[in-house]
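Here is my example:
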Amino acid sequence: ATGRLHAQIAVLHVLACGGSSTPAAPAAAIPPAGETPMAKPASPRRDVDVATLHADLEASRVPALVDVRSLEEFSGGHVPGAVNVPLGEVAARLGELASYQSGEVYVICERGGRSSSAADQLVASGFRAVNVEGGTAAWRAAGYPLD
Protein backbone atom coordinates (compact mmCIF):
# COMPACT_ATOMS: atom_id res chain seq x y z
CA ALA A 1 0.00 0.00 0.00
CA THR A 2 2.85 2.38 0.79
CA GLY A 3 4.40 1.82 -2.65
CA ARG A 4 1.10 2.58 -4.36
CA LEU A 5 0.68 5.74 -2.27
CA HIS A 6 4.16 6.92 -3.31
CA ALA A 7 3.28 6.25 -6.96
CA GLN A 8 0.05 8.24 -6.62
CA ILE A 9 1.93 11.13 -5.02
CA ALA A 10 4.47 11.04 -7.86
CA VAL A 11 1.68 11.21 -10.47
CA LEU A 12 0.03 14.12 -8.65
CA HIS A 13 3.40 15.89 -8.47
CA VAL A 14 3.94 15.48 -12.21
CA LEU A 15 0.46 16.78 -12.96
CA ALA A 16 0.83 19.75 -10.59
CA CYS A 17 4.26 20.68 -11.95
CA GLY A 18 3.35 20.84 -15.61
CA GLY A 19 3.42 17.23 -16.73
CA SER A 20 7.15 16.56 -16.84
CA SER A 21 8.01 13.34 -18.61
CA THR A 22 10.85 12.76 -16.15
CA PRO A 23 9.80 10.31 -13.46
CA ALA A 24 9.67 11.73 -9.97
CA ALA A 25 12.47 10.77 -7.64
CA PRO A 26 11.50 8.38 -4.87
CA ALA A 27 10.64 10.02 -1.57
CA ALA A 28 13.96 9.06 0.02
CA ALA A 29 13.92 12.09 2.28
CA ILE A 30 10.86 10.76 4.10
CA PRO A 31 11.93 7.81 6.28
CA PRO A 32 9.60 4.85 6.82
CA ALA A 33 7.43 4.99 9.95
CA GLY A 34 9.45 4.49 13.11
CA GLU A 35 12.77 5.61 11.62
CA THR A 36 14.40 8.99 12.16
CA PRO A 37 15.67 11.04 9.21
CA MET A 38 19.41 11.08 8.60
CA ALA A 39 21.14 14.32 9.56
CA LYS A 40 22.41 16.39 6.65
CA PRO A 41 26.19 16.90 6.86
CA ALA A 42 27.32 20.42 7.71
CA SER A 43 28.35 22.43 4.67
CA PRO A 44 31.93 23.65 4.57
CA ARG A 45 30.61 26.93 3.11
CA ARG A 46 28.91 29.70 5.05
CA ASP A 47 27.27 32.89 3.84
CA VAL A 48 27.54 36.07 5.92
CA ASP A 49 26.48 39.68 5.50
CA VAL A 50 28.86 42.62 5.67
CA ALA A 51 27.94 43.40 9.29
CA THR A 52 29.13 39.92 10.26
CA LEU A 53 32.29 40.36 8.19
CA HIS A 54 32.94 43.68 9.91
CA ALA A 55 32.44 42.14 13.37
CA ASP A 56 34.63 39.15 12.48
CA LEU A 57 37.39 41.47 11.22
CA GLU A 58 37.19 43.58 14.38
CA ALA A 59 37.48 40.41 16.49
CA SER A 60 40.39 39.05 14.38
CA ARG A 61 38.30 36.02 13.31
CA VAL A 62 39.14 36.34 9.60
CA PRO A 63 42.30 34.37 8.78
CA ALA A 64 42.04 35.26 5.08
CA LEU A 65 39.87 37.66 3.07
CA VAL A 66 40.05 37.17 -0.69
CA ASP A 67 38.61 39.80 -3.04
CA VAL A 68 37.87 38.12 -6.37
CA ARG A 69 37.16 41.30 -8.35
CA SER A 70 39.43 42.49 -11.14
CA LEU A 71 42.64 44.32 -10.22
CA GLU A 72 41.07 47.56 -11.46
CA GLU A 73 38.02 47.14 -9.21
CA PHE A 74 40.19 46.15 -6.26
CA SER A 75 42.47 49.18 -6.79
CA GLY A 76 39.41 51.43 -6.68
CA GLY A 77 38.73 50.47 -3.05
CA HIS A 78 38.60 47.25 -1.08
CA VAL A 79 37.89 45.97 2.41
CA PRO A 80 40.98 46.50 4.59
CA GLY A 81 43.12 43.39 4.77
CA ALA A 82 41.75 41.83 1.59
CA VAL A 83 44.07 40.24 -0.94
CA ASN A 84 43.21 40.35 -4.61
CA VAL A 85 42.81 37.03 -6.44
CA PRO A 86 40.56 37.66 -9.48
CA LEU A 87 37.91 34.98 -9.98
CA GLY A 88 39.58 33.61 -13.12
CA GLU A 89 42.80 33.03 -11.17
CA VAL A 90 41.40 31.29 -8.08
CA ALA A 91 42.09 27.72 -9.23
CA ALA A 92 45.64 28.54 -10.33
CA ARG A 93 46.45 30.34 -7.07
CA LEU A 94 45.14 27.80 -4.52
CA GLY A 95 48.71 27.21 -3.34
CA GLU A 96 48.85 30.80 -2.06
CA LEU A 97 45.83 30.08 0.16
CA ALA A 98 46.97 26.64 1.38
CA SER A 99 48.23 28.03 4.70
CA TYR A 100 44.63 29.09 5.46
CA GLN A 101 43.11 25.69 4.68
CA SER A 102 42.76 24.80 8.37
CA GLY A 103 40.52 27.85 8.94
CA GLU A 104 37.90 29.70 6.96
CA VAL A 105 38.64 31.76 3.87
CA TYR A 106 36.27 34.72 3.48
CA VAL A 107 35.51 35.61 -0.13
CA ILE A 108 34.15 38.95 -1.37
CA CYS A 109 33.45 40.59 -4.73
CA GLU A 110 31.34 43.60 -5.72
CA ARG A 111 27.84 42.21 -5.07
CA GLY A 112 28.18 38.52 -4.14
CA GLY A 113 27.93 36.58 -7.40
CA ARG A 114 31.60 36.07 -8.18
CA SER A 115 32.44 35.44 -4.54
CA SER A 116 29.77 32.74 -4.41
CA SER A 117 31.41 31.00 -7.41
CA ALA A 118 34.86 31.37 -5.87
CA ALA A 119 33.63 30.04 -2.51
CA ASP A 120 32.24 26.98 -4.29
CA GLN A 121 35.61 26.47 -6.04
CA LEU A 122 37.39 26.69 -2.70
CA VAL A 123 35.02 24.20 -1.08
CA ALA A 124 35.59 21.78 -3.98
CA SER A 125 39.33 22.12 -3.27
CA GLY A 126 38.98 21.26 0.41
CA PHE A 127 38.67 24.74 1.93
CA ARG A 128 36.03 26.03 4.31
CA ALA A 129 34.78 29.13 2.56
CA VAL A 130 32.70 32.06 3.75
CA ASN A 131 30.86 33.98 1.04
CA VAL A 132 30.22 37.65 1.84
CA GLU A 133 26.71 38.41 0.57
CA GLY A 134 26.22 41.88 -0.87
CA GLY A 135 29.94 42.24 -1.38
CA THR A 136 31.95 45.44 -1.44
CA ALA A 137 28.87 47.39 -2.59
CA ALA A 138 27.06 46.49 0.65
CA TRP A 139 30.24 47.18 2.66
CA ARG A 140 30.48 50.63 1.05
CA ALA A 141 26.74 51.30 1.57
CA ALA A 142 27.07 50.41 5.26
CA GLY A 143 29.71 53.13 5.62
CA TYR A 144 32.58 50.81 6.50
CA PRO A 145 36.08 51.99 5.52
CA LEU A 146 37.85 51.01 2.31
CA ASP A 147 41.55 50.86 1.55
Summary: Residues 2-29 have pLDDT under 50 and may be disordered. The first helix runs from residue 2 to 16. The beta strands are 45-48, 64-67, 83-84, 104-108, 128-132. The CA atoms of residues 80 and 147 lie 5 Å apart.
